[in-house]
Amino acid sequence: MVKPSVAKRLRPPAEPLSDAATVETIVCGNCGQRFAIRTGPDFQNAELIKKQAAWVADQLVWDHIQERKHHGTIELPNL
After folding, report:
1. Which long-range contacts (CB under 8 A, 24 or more apart) does 54-61 make?
2. What is the torsional sign of CA 36, 30, 64, 79?
3. pLDDT digit string (tens) for the chain, length 79 residues
4. pTM here?
5. Which of 65, 66, 68, 60 is nearest to 33 (CA)?
């Protein structure tokens, strides 16, 4: 079974990594919350991760526009 890539909110102290590796960290420009893109080692594609990071950043901005809280975990699309 293929696990989807996710962006997971980071909270201090840092959460231990499970079977996935953190490959990119995104910081919300409005509130400073940090999200880590985690993906399995078989799915680490630099171009895809850049697109997913930009997508997450857009979602974080949209959350503030809609005046809603950020989700703890965001499933990433396969852009």
Report:
1. 55/79, 56/7, 56/26, 57/26, 57/28, 57/29, 60/26, 60/28, 60/29, 60/30, 60/33, 60/35, 61/28, 61/29, 61/30
2. negative
3. 445 688 899 887 555 555 556 788 999 999 999 999 887 766 667 888 899 999 999 999 999 999 999 999 999 887 6
4. 0.79
5. 60
Of 25, 34, 31, 27, which is closest to residue 64 (Cα–Cα)? 31
Provide the 3-class DSSP secondary structure of residue 9: strand
CA distance 25 to 38: 9
Nearest to 20 by CA among 7, 10, 31, 30: 7
Residue 55, beta-bridge partner list: none
